[in-house]
Structures
1.
Amino acid sequence: MKRFLGLLAVIFITSTANVAYGQVKELPGYLSPFFSKDSYYIANEGRVHIVDGEMGLLASGTGDILDLKSLKITYIKDATVYTVGEKGEAGIVFFDKGYWSIEEGRGFWRYLEADTSDAPTGAFTDHSFAYTWDNAKTYCNDLSEGGHENWFLPKIDELGKMYDLREKIGGFKTSADDYPWYWSSSEFDYDDAWFQYFNVGYQYLNYKVYHISVRCARAITTI
């Protein structure tokens, strides 16, 4: 569905705690003819606006009006820049997407960071390495740490990136004697899900009812 609100007065935006904006680098095809090179994307309290530098507000709304997932913003004024392998907001940054965009369930984000410690053992069971697949997801989804609550169990490809940076992130089990297996959120079928070995780097399937380790991650959504 496409709707435009017409041409309004030019809007001058400044950066505040609740407003972020940047030059639009890529647009859905149906929007491209309407924008000049000076178009800007503004994210403000959950709504998205597209502003043309010469003509003013051209489009505004949420997902039913604009295809927000296809908008890729490579520059946002005054946005904090993070470096992979270094400290983020509440952990260590292990992935830089290269642009800001909206993803269902994760919000408007560019960077992913890893918690610096495993989920505590025995939180759900008496097993020494703690978590079934369902319990692993529940633990991360309920986690409140570092002033943030948007933690999740990482996908298998994200766990691979965390493995590559395991020494900088720290705290992982890496000895075969410690069962260095970590759940991902990636399912294979009803019974099986993917996990990552943190001693040799392999990725395998495991029964979801098995108990293995958990390391949570989160998307940095603060501009």
2.
Amino acid sequence: MESFTEVVRRKQNRPPPEVWTRKDKLVVCGAFAAALLAFLGWPILNSVITHRKIVNRRLATWETRFELSAAEISRLREIESRFHGSGLQFTAQTKSHQQIDDHKQELSRAMNPQAGLEFINYYQNKHSCGR
């Protein structure tokens, strides 16, 4: 077994630990920050992209079903964005039946009269909000 003095001498003979430079510290901190940002940012980015795809698919369906022009689609996109948001949501949206009906009416007014009437009839039969 080694004596206490031998252990102390061996420790004294060791070279001093390597000192981290500012660059090393920044690289390590940057790697941790990037990992944290990716961990938190990916679900948020994915939510926004998924929401945008859903809105685009819905508008494409309306465009073919109700024969809408590009200007009408642009206006409908604005209305949908204002009502549903950008997809960056941390809580579920709760809209009243009246708010949903008002939204449908606003959408129908943004369409040409014939398409607006078809839109209202279609969605009253499909989603009546329990009425």
3.
Amino acid sequence: MDENTKNEFITLFLQTSQGNVSSMKALIAKKQSDKPDPDILSVLYRLAHSLKGECSAMGFVTTAKNSHLLEVVFKKIINNELLFTPELVVDISESINQLEYSLNHIASSGSEIDLTNHISQFEQRTGIRLSDVR
């Protein structure tokens, strides 16, 4: 792949991914109760799933893992396997912010931020281990 084509892919990736993160931030900010709207949760799940695929396809491994963890969290909330607590909303918001930071870093430097520590802490707080998820 020539440099021009690679730059076009990265530009498209960033536009799409940053749009998905902005949508996630707007939706999670609408949280008004401990019983979230199932339609909003479904949209959040699909956005996280899309981000996971986009980041994986571009080779941004820890950003993809962070997206995957969010995807699993939203799926568990949808399936009533995880309570949508105020503390979890804070963790979700922080994880979305970490996605945004990493995407901004990719945009400015071409490389992602290592989110390994954040992912480990988020796994601990939720009791979810990505290594156990199929």
4.
Amino acid sequence: MTQEPTPEQNPKDESLRDSARELAEKAKELADKTEDFLEDAAGKIKESDAYKKAGEILKKAEVYVENARDELEKSGIKEKLKSLADKLGESAEGLIEKARVAGKEIADKFAEKENKEGTGSPAEEDKG
């Protein structure tokens, strides 16, 4: 009986391993070149006028926002809004109380009118 060669002894398998190694090396080289290209491109972008202007604009925007926030804090807007909310709440409570009193007066007048006209409803009068 002849014995089959083991995978380590098979020339086809070794050729495949060599091809795989070569492919891996080429992929690594390509990745290295891509990394270098991206680093160069990033460096060029950072040195460009547009990038510098964008940085200046962002700094100005940041300063503007900080100043606006400081002005709002100094103006006491938070306290003013809280005071307004409190006043509106008190006003609403007063209006609710007035509406309750007016509703009770209307109900009392209606009941009084009903008592003057008769105690029964028209439906009860039809029965009698």
